[in-house]
Amino acid sequence: MKLTKHIFMLLVLLTAISCDNVLDKQPLDKLQGENLFSNPEGVKLYMANLYYQLPVEDFTFFRQGFNWNTGDPNNGGFAPAMITDEAVHTEFGDFIGNDDFQWWDQGYKLIRDTNILIDIIPTLDVSEDETKALVGESAFIRAYAYFALAKRYGGVPLITAVQKYEGDVEALKVPRSTEKETWDFVLKECDTAIANLADSWPGGERRATKWVAYALKSRAALHAASLAKYGERAPISGTAVDQKLVGLEKSAAAEYYKAAIEASEAIISSGKFALYKPSPASPEEAAENYRKLFEDPNIAPTEAIFIKGYARPGSGTGHNYGIWFQPNQTANGWPHPGRMNPTLDLIDAYESYTNPGQSAPVTTTVAGNDVSDYNGFDPAKNYKRYDDPAGIYKDKDARLWATAILPGTAWKGQKIIIQAGFVKPDGNAQLFGGEPIKVGSATIYPFGAADRTQYSGFDTWGGNNTRTGVSFKKFLNEGVNVAPGWNQTVSDWADFRYAEILLNYAEAIAESGTGTAAKGAQALNDIRRRAGHTKDIPLTIDNVVRERRVELAFENKRFWDLIRRREYHTLFNNRVRHALIPVLDLRVTPAKYIFIRQNIARLNPATFDYKNYYRYVPGIGANGLVQNPQY
Amino acid sequence: MLLFAAGCKIDNYPAPDAQLYGTFLDAETNEPVEQDIIRGSTIEYIEHGYTSQTKQVMIVKNDGTYRNNLIFANQYTITPVRGNFVPTEPQEVTVAGETKLDFKVQPYIRLKDAKIEKSGSKVIATFKIQQTVINNVRKIGLYAHPEPSVGEPMRTVLSEMEINGAADPNKVYQLEIDIPSNSNNLKTGNQYFFRVGAVIDAPESKFNYAKAVRLAL
Predict the structure, then answer these.
(1) Which residues of chain B are within 8 Å of residue A573 when distances are taken between CB atoms?
(2) CA separation (Å) from B211 to A478, B26, B34, B113, B114?
(3) Is the pLDDT of residue A8 over 60?
(4) Do domains B2-105 and B109-216 have the same CATH topology?
(5) Does the pLDDT value for residue A33 go beyond 80?
(6) Measured between CB atoms, does A432 come within 8 Å of chain B?
(7) Which residues of A touch B153 (CB under 8 A)?
(8) Is there a smaller number of Cβ atoms within 10 Å at the N or the C end of chain B?
(9) What is the CATH number assigned to the segment(s) B109-216?
């Protein structure tokens, strides 16, 4: 009885409080919605937040999401490239998991925030030009968001206006559209953006333009076209398939390739874009140009179509490439550098200037017939010997030299030492550790130097030394010593660059057999020319795919390329990735370097299952959506 | 007190006390149909009495048997799916106590007269393949692994041959693995399991196999 009385008193009290005006008071330090949109500056502020939420796959993107540079940004230096054949982590052997690369709640949050703006645009008191720009920008953001959803989930609910809760939860539940409808919606939103956006912004702001929207359309249409063409390589079944929520008809490929060709062509023929330093005099010059392009994409305004900037060190404004991926020797006090280890699988893909037009797997023996032998050192083999620890990479595509730090090359004024061990004068190999030996009066160290701050390869200490034989270079700024703390790197990310558009164009032409083949070939060869190649190669699918691998390496494209072309399950079926280990050969005097192709140490084989081509839809218990197959 | 009492009550469901087990059997020969334990044929089952219709999944051992010792006694709709046999219809099954449920299936491919032997520095497999559907045979393979669950998904060494055509039931196919050129994974003096398999060209099809053979190298 007493309890009842207390509850009653509480109710009275609560009612009394809620009658008070205290809940209707306005905070003095925050802007109200109406006020925000009544002022053009407020709209700009709101727009900045939408851009911040864009799922840009940049330095702060990895398997757990975007903008991984606030709160605790410690992801161990794990990057999306490490789930592909581009690289492995020094320590982690993780492959793709069900919870990886999800983007559902955040996606619909961005879409809702964009819809709020879209609904309010007609009521704003701004000029006609400004209205057009807002319509274009919000369509661009929605296209970008739905593209990110479609490539993960297939068909998704298309929410095109702000939903209001009016007492009926069921009314808020929108079923998934088909995958075809979803891709068509993405392209339609791109068209709206293209039709409404201007050539540029008066102050050169990093906001969507007509050309950025074309670039997005080029990328999205190519993605959809590849899914339609190659979906049958990885058949799946289930309710979502029966209802066409995942999967595209093969016949849809033609229209999507056409859209990709046209969007790319619009950019190419605009005359506003060009490759940065398109005709270098030598491979060395090409390598330096290419390196600089990623160190700071702002130096190449004709190539970098859309840039996401990192303005200043700090939470939310800097990123962590500069600490995680330095070679061990230039860690600058950071305890865990060296984490991005480019694979031999990628190195092999780069062309050689001596035999252009094909991948040039690194041959380590005089016989040269054993590139598929990964069994380790074989004393019976006649290995090629080099004075220069990077000698084996001579004649390899300039972009390899600018993407990876090769053994013995200079970086930040130091010679980067990467050595896996030695072959003793008696012919026995000592690899991956052990004690130094004396040869004559010289002491020979397994990893190439006495102290663990003086080398960058193979020592497992701290997970700081490459286990593939090369270290990572692309995007790193050679001139800046990044402070050893979180979010201290401030290099910018080119989200769309002209080279990708040229490659989209070439691929769409080669795959569809439509368009002008000669122009596709020129697009392909222009990129190669910029990389120091002088002989043109024909436009074939293999040539385009290889060119994409090397030109766009580590730009977080490979993961989606393997997915959209349905190549993942074939290339990752118990996939073992490989290293090219430099070994000092003491059987000869003076000692020379030999190289051994072998499996990357301490790394399990990786397998990509059919179901991984789609992510699972979170929260189907509440949202009532049809789940993707096999989840 | 009241809250605690209520909380306990809701958790007091009985534990699953039924068992479901059985074997995939070749409808024609009545022999077990060899399977893969990972990425192999699966059994999907839906428990009746709930609106969610959530599919649960069981996997199958290499010898074609499966067993679930922790299943609630209830009505189920059970369907073997994504297998190495011609797709079958869902069945309504009452599970209570020890319930045996064999699946009579038509394997896509039967591997006949399989022999796997070590010969000099090679492991040589010979076998015939008999397909039961008109689809092409996509490829055949010889797989090796230290564990008996060897198969295409679980192997450290393989030797495969693309067929992409109809198989001649009288032809003896031969596959071989060279031991020295796989010295990383096949070490002299150790024992390994070898198994031959073939896969049909059908959506989501899995490999059919002969029994694994243990060889000392």
Answers:
(1) 153
(2) 58, 14, 7, 11, 8
(3) no
(4) yes
(5) no
(6) no
(7) 573-574, 607
(8) N
(9) 2.60.40.2060
Q: Which residues of B touch A (CB under 8 A)?
A: 39, 52, 81-82, 153, 155, 181-184, 203-204
- A159, A108 contact by CB (below 8 A): yes
Q: What is the arithmetic mean of pLDDT over A574-593?
A: 97
User: Cα(A569)–Cα(A571) distance, rounded to whole angstroms?
Assistant: 6
Nearest to A546 by CA among A397, A401, A340: A397
User: CA-to-CA distance for A560 and A244, rounded, in angstroms?
Assistant: 21
Q: Which residues of A touch B183 (CB under 8 A)?
A: 375-376
The Cα of B141 is separated from the nearest Cα of chain A by a number of Å equal to 14
Closest to B182 (Cα-Cα) out of B151, B217, B161, B157: B157
Superfamily of domain B2-105: Carboxypeptidase-like, regulatory domain (2.60.40.1120)
Position B178: which residue type? D
Q: What is the DSSP string of A384-408?
A: --BSSTTGGGTTB-HHHHHHEE-TT
Task: Tell me the average pLDDT of chain A.
Answer: 94
Closest Cα of chain B to A371: distance in Å? Answer: 12
Distance, in angstroms, between B182 CA and closest chain A CA?
Answer: 7
Residues of chain B below pLDDT 50: 1-6
Please give the domain boundaries of chain A with CATH numbers for all domains.
Answer: 33-65+77-270+613-623 (1.25.40.390), 319-491+574-605 (no CATH)
DSSP of A289-316: HHHHHHH-GGG-TTTEEEEE---SSSTT
Nearest to A235 among B155, B182, B203 (CB): B203
Greater model confidence, A462 or B3: A462
Q: Which chain B residues touch A235 with a CB distance below 8 Å?
A: 203-204
Q: What is the pLDDT of residues A597-625, one digit of tens each?
A: 999 999 999 999 999 999 999 999 899 99
Nearest CA distance, A162 vs chain B (angstrom): 29
Q: What mean pLDDT do residues A503-522 have?
A: 98
